[in-house]
Amino acid sequence: TMEEWQNIEEKMNSLPMTKRDARTFMRMFFSGAVEVELDKQGRINIPKNLREYANLTKECTVIGVSSRIEIWDRSTWNAFYEESEDSFEDIAEDLIDFDF
Prior knowledge:
Blueprint: H1 2-13, H2 20-31, H3 48-53, E1 60-65, E2 68-73, H4 74-85, H5 88-95
């Protein structure tokens, strides 16, 4: 949501601009930000630079990650999922310390 984006933006703006890493991070992070609107059919147009950055092809997968979505190239997502599937239980056990 726009409110969530504004919260992220506020936190980012509190980074010390005297630090090179903070400036670099903010430049890279915000340079890819684009506000888009849904068309009448509920679709968005992903700008070319973001499609290229994410290596999106015609076949994409949209996944839900808590309160946000991620758009992956289908073959990239499938490879990530297969690679991560085997370690999922180990990761879950490591995260138990976070009181889920």
